[in-house]
Amino acid sequence: MEILVFISGIIALGGIYAMLAVALNVNGGILGLWDLGIVGYFAVGAYSYTLLTIEAPEGLGLPMIAGVIGSVIITGLLSLFIGYISLRLQSEYLLITTFAFAEIIRIVAGNEEWLTNGNIGFFGLDKPFQEFIPGANYMLFFSGLVLLTLAIFYIFAQRLADSPMGRYMRAIRENEIVTQSIGKKIYTTKLKVFVLSSCMVGLVGCFYVWYMSIIAPNMFTSAITFTVWTALVLGGIGNNRGAVIGAFVLILVQEATRFIPVPAEYSVVLAGLRQFISGMMLILVLRFLPQGLIAEKFKSVEKLFKFHDNSIILEPKGVGKNAASQGAE
Amino acid sequence: MLQVKGLSKNFGGVQAVKNVTLEVNKGEIVGLIGPNGAGKTTLFNMISLFLTSNSGEISFLEEKIDIATPEAVVGKGLLRTFQTPVGFPKLSLLENLMVVPPNEGEGIFSIFFKKKKITRIEQDHYDKVCGLLRQFNLYEKRNELAENLSAAELKLLELCRQLMANPKIMLLDEPASGVNPIMLEKMVQHILRLRSEGMTFLVIDHNLGFIYRICDRIYCLANGELIASGTPEEISNNEKVKSVYLGAS
Questions:
Q1: Are the Cβ atoms of B86 and A159 closer than 8 angstroms?
Q2: Cα–Cα distance for residue pair A164/B79, rounded to 1 Å
Q3: What is the side-by-side order of every strand in the sheet holding B63-64?
Q4: Nearest CA in chain A to B121
Q5: Which of A211, A231, A181 is nearest to A38 (CA)?
Q6: ipTM
């Protein structure tokens, strides 16, 4: 039984990272924004949920569902502000700006003691439906909840990627200037998608609070941003399935290394090697599978929308099976 | 149709374009030639509003456009191609073109609530794209990624992409460079056919044979200044043009 609980704990954590990776894939993978601020929205989501739901005097004592909705809205508004002032920047400049915002958020959370209780944070936070499922079994239920939400995230992101909107986003990623030259308002689109992705991350923040049942600024270091980006690169940028698989593989490897038997006197040194392993994985994947474990798949629009073109008869033609003509049978 | 009056641009101390005035009338093919660094592409960038000019004015369809945005100009029907055609490398040809027309499906909420309507719009765009690809002999490759096309095919794709946006005037930046003679002949046929359908062109190119053949009038630019303008015969006999191109007179 304990092993089951342990496994479901890993699944829950993996699922949380997978959700982050899917959300990041929407703006980092499909739209191609170099966003290193993901942990910032994660922290804002988590903190706003906590402060909305925790009892007075620290918080407002709202019901859980109001806390979740509120945290998504607050994250959205904050990312709207960040996006509004930084999205005109290109690649590296955007990267450094978003990174700085994430750090600012963490430092504010550590110092504004009246609001966030400083570095101590809050602990013993409630989890959803806790009273119905007692004790250790709760983790089984929680991992189910995470997987369900992950499925919703995945379907949403997949639908977005396959739609005209997804095509437009990939066009911006491929060539911004050309997209502008055909009359598209790319800034507005970037801002919309940026806010959408941040709202998704904010929602995952609530799950993180439930998972940890504590909240403190040092939970939101840039290590999370890099883990999520690593997961996305491992799995395959631009591919939602890759994002999910990358996150689970990374978390699994990190957790599995706990069981490597090492002599006690080396344990401290070897613990540092866990970071080394994820770094090594990243390097190996980039060397041998530069597209990630699952490359971004090319889907024919003809297949997606089941277009019919009855004017002439055609042989199936093109690149590989994906591109086989749907034409005129 | 398109008027440019006294347009100037300097980058720091370099005066890239000096007081250029030119005009393109409806249904004309106007050429713009000049040695490397003459300011041709800078002029294009200013006309399509990717760059703001330091002085001078641009009007299109009797309307001043200097203060508009690049997107707004496209809406009016002024389209441009780029010197190095890349399109959207990781998108198929179909997608490269289907992304062009304004589409209600390019909204986050409409994807989920207006699926039927979007499928209908997409089908319309798809039909239009297929028709266009057939005209340009690219239909067989419609599901290939744009990065797998040859340079000449990419140039054709650039033309198709502009045509998807219902242009009234097309600014072509070096459509003939890197195109083999057979493809070039096809390109000429396409441009002449489009003109006979009422399209207007402003074309930059270094291939003078190509320019002399298709253009009604030619402007020659050197060091940012207009040094000559006239019909192909006048330009080909102009001593100044010969001297900037050949370095001797």
A1: no
A2: 22
A3: B14-24, B2-11, B55-60, B63-64
A4: A164
A5: A231
A6: 0.88
A316 to A321, A323, B143, B150: CA distances (angstroms): 9, 8, 10, 21
**A 282-311 residues with CB < 8 A to B:** 296, 298, 300-302, 305, 307, 309, 311
Could you tell me which chain B residue has the CA closest to the CA of A322? B143
Which among B48, B71, B127 has the least Cβ separation from residue A185? B71
State how far the Cα of A326 lies from the Cα of A303, in Å rounded to an integer: 6
Question: A89-127 burial, b if ≥16 CB within 10 A, otherwise e?
Answer: eeeeebbebbbebbbebbeebbeeeeebbeeebbeebbb
Dump pLDDT digits (tens) for B78-111: 898 888 888 899 899 999 999 988 888 788 888 7
User: Which residues 135-174 of A have a C-beta within 8 angstroms of B?
Assistant: 159-160, 163-165, 167-168, 170-171, 174
Q: Which residues in B lie closer than 8 A to residue A179 (C-beta atoms)?
A: 88, 99
The region, left, alpha or beta by phi > 0 then psi within -120 to 50, assigned to residue B179 is beta
Structure tokens at A288: 């041998």
Which residue in B200, B207, B201, B212 sits closest to B183, CA to CA? B207
* DSSP β-ladder status, B63-64 and B55-60: antiparallel
Tell me the pLDDT tens digit for each residue of B1-49: 888 888 888 888 888 888 889 899 998 999 998 888 888 888 888 888 8
For residue A302, which residues of chain B lie inside 8 Å, CB to CB? 94, 126, 143
A1: number of Cβ within 10 Å? 8
**Nearest residue, CB atoms, B86 vs list A175, A184, A192:** A175
Q: Could you write out the DSSP letters of every residue in A251-315? A: HHHHHHGGGS---GGGHHHHHTHHHHHHHHHHHHHHHH-TT-SSPPPP--HHHHHT----SS---
pTM here is: 0.88
Amino acid at position A297, single letter: K
